[in-house]
UniProtKB/TrEMBL annotation:
GO cellular component terms, semicolon-separated: plasma membrane
Name of this chain's protein: Trk system potassium uptake protein TrkA
Domain RCK N-terminal per the UniProt entry, residue ranges: 1-117
Pfam families, A to Z: TrkA_C, TrkA_N
Keyword terms, alphabetized: Ion transport, NAD, Potassium, Potassium transport, Transport
Listed transmembrane segments: none
UniProt key word Ubl conjugation: no
Superkingdom of source: Bacteria
Boundaries of every RCK C-terminal domain copy: 137-218
Gene3D superfamilies associated with the record: NAD(P)-binding Rossmann-like Domain (3.40.50.720), Regulator of K+ conductance, C-terminal domain (3.30.70.1450)
């Protein structure tokens, strides 16, 4: 997979390193000469250019990229890069970094963004996830398809503890994608039984989040009543 990353700062370089370790082809783009540090990510391609300019993106051959990541520290730049990548080059997947949570509402398909990643929001969500049991935590928003990645740790008193995944009447527009149980990551099957303490990751429509939380958090005594 070929990935172009606009922004060769600490965030961009870190993403590039991870992708290269996983066998992907990576191009880092930055207009600041001081940001071009080939020795820090020697296996990546580097381009000194303004990612907001069509001529620069032509030089980067963006049409050959499977993914573009707008990872600069400037939300305006990230939006422009996302829009150009999607509308001018037809890049299948565009991921954008949101620096200011107040701008998050802009990072949607209208600006070419498929996935918006807000670092402050993600850090807040991870803190909530670490201390919350029985509460739904929103981890990430997917702009295309109007869905969120959400997490809930199944509380011990939940009526669904011990219930098979296939026997649960899940809300519409929700999908259980992963069960994290201790040190194990499980791909759920219909026969798997839910256990208290399981971290459940769902892709869900925002309108279904409250219904999903109510279903998972309902207490045993509530059911018996």
């Amino acid at each position: 997979m070929r990935v172009a990353i606009a922004g060769a700062g600490a965030v961009g370089r870190s993403i590039a390193g991870e992708l290269l370790e996983n066998g992907h082809e990576v191009l880092l783009i930055d207009k600041a000469p001081t940001a071009i540090s080939v020795e820090r990510v020697p296996l990546a391609e580097w381009l000194l250019a303004d990612a907001c300019e069509i001529t620069s993106l032509d030089e980067a051959a963006l049409q050959r990229c499977n993914v573009v990541i707008a990872a600069t520290g400037d939300d305006k730049v990230n939006l422009v890069v996302s829009l150009l990548a999607k509308t001018e080059y037809g890049v299948p997947r565009v991921v954008a970094r949101v620096n200011n949570p107040k701008n998050e509402w802009l990072f949607n398909e209208s600006w070419g963004v498929d996935v918006a990643v807000s670092t402050p929001r993600l850090m807040s969500a991870l803190v909530e996830e670490a201390v919350s049991v029985g509460d739904l935590v929103r981890l990430m928003r997917f702009s295309q398809g109007d869905a969120n990645l959400v997490e809930l740790t199944l509380p011990p008193e939940s009526a669904l503890a011990g219930t098979r995944v296939g026997d649960v009447d899940w809300p519409d527009d929700t999908s259980l994608v992963t069960i994290i149980r201790g040190n194990r990551v499980l791909t759920p099957s219909k026969e798997d039984a839910l256990e208290a303490g399981d971290e459940l990751l769902f892709v869900a429509a925002p309108a279904r989040e409250e219904q999903l939380e109510d279903l998972l958090s309902v207490r045993r005594e509530d059911v018996s009543d």
